[in-house]
From TrEMBL:
<dbReference type="InterPro" id="IPR001173">
    <property type="entry name" value="Glyco_trans_2-like"/>
</dbReference>
<dbReference type="Pfam" id="PF00535">
    <property type="entry name" value="Glycos_transf_2"/>
</dbReference>
<dbReference type="GO" id="GO:0016757">
    <property type="term" value="F:glycosyltransferase activity"/>
</dbReference>
<dbReference type="InterPro" id="IPR029044">
    <property type="entry name" value="Nucleotide-diphossugar_trans"/>
</dbReference>
<feature type="domain" description="Glycosyltransferase 2-like">
    <location>
        <begin position="9"/>
        <end position="137"/>
    </location>
</feature>
<keyword id="KW-0328">Glycosyltransferase</keyword>
<keyword id="KW-0808">Transferase</keyword>
<protein>
    <submittedName>
        <fullName>GT</fullName>
    </submittedName>
</protein>
Length: 306
């Protein structure tokens, strides 16, 4: 199936972002690739976000505004997924913005067999992969969990048919982990594309309510989701990504154990950490992420001596 001039559906969940929303929506409207729709789901905003979003819906028929009760970002994204009409799907956070060729570059990376295209994560210094280099699913998950392309949805373009039965888990943090685990079962042995253009998505690093800016002990759910993903990757014999996801989870748990005060959450985290650490392939991981591995080994030794 040709991808030439195929419609793209942007899904934009909105909640109290009026200082940034106009710039975000303008950056979508001014894309050099113009065949798109924008589904704006207002998750119960109480500021001027509704007025801003509605103004775009009035002046541009490609913009659709939907108002819902405040049920969280995952719920809003899932509403968007249920309404898309495009053959491709892109997720944009409402306080971020896009460079003008964001969409054009991703579309051009697709051929008939490609299911996902991705930019590198904004902060990555990894330059080995050239533009539009085909990679396997095993490599794709390795690059996500090693931070090269990140376990995020906003720097990627998805073929819509692979997301027909995929949804974000609602009411939890780190919802992208489970989202990608569902995708794994759809794409399995296909190839994806990595696009080496670092600055086409302008990500706002610190945002109010962002899980990176506040510590929540319930984030341990993310570690549980990652352990489920590890089991699935093992079943599918994705050996490289098994090691990387395992290490990523251990790094997360190490930081979690050091930060959390709740005794029960700490004990649960230590139990998961010990189980994963027992299966670490230290030789293989030394060549993948030696600094990560060193921090984990040192932490493990300190834990034993306490």
């Amino acid at each position: 199936m040709s991808v030439e001039n195929s419609k793209v559906s942007f899904i934009v969940p909105i909640f109290n972002v009026d200082p940034y929303l106009k710039a975000s929506l303008d950056s979508i409207a001014h894309q050099t690739y113009q065949n798109f729709e924008v589904i704006m789901i207002d998750d119960g905003s109480t500021d001027h976000s509704e007025l801003i979003a509605k103004s775009y819906a009035r002046k541009d028929s490609r913009f659709e505004y939907i108002k819902t009760k405040n049920n969280g970002q995952s719920h809003a994204r899932n509403i968007g997924l249920s309404r898309v009409k495009g053959k491709f799907i892109s997720f944009v956070d409402p306080d971020d913005s896009l460079e003008k060729n964001f969409l054009k570059n991703l579309i051009n990376a697709f051929d008939d067999d490609t299911l996902i295209a991705s930019y590198l994560f904004p902060s990555t210094k990894y330059n080995k992969h050239s533009i539009s280099k085909k990679i396997t699913v095993d490599d794709f998950f390795s690059m996500m969990f090693s931070g090269i392309i990140g376990t995020v949805v906003w720097n990627k373009l998805f073929r819509a048919n692979i997301l027909e039965k995929v949804r974000f888990p609602e009411g939890q943090v780190h919802e992208e982990i489970e989202f990608f685990r569902q995708i794994l079962h759809v794409i399995n042995d296909y190839e994806v594309v990595v696009v080496n253009e670092k600055h086409q998505y302008r990500y706002r690093e610190v945002r109010k309510g962002n899980t990176k800016s506040t510590f929540d002990p319930k984030r341990i759910v993310g570690a549980k989701d990652e352990t489920n993903l590890i089991l699935d990757l093992k079943k599918m014999q994705k050996s490289k990504s098994v090691e990387v996801v395992n290490l990523d989870t251990l790094v997360f748990l190490k930081n979690f154990i050091q930060e959390v005060d709740d005794i029960d959450f700490k004990k649960e985290a230590v139990t998961i950490f010990d189980e994963l650490y027992a299966h670490v392939n230290k030789v293989k991981l030394f060549f993948i992420k030696p600094i990560w591995l060193l921090s984990i080994v040192k932490f493990r030794l300190r834990q034993r001596n306490e």
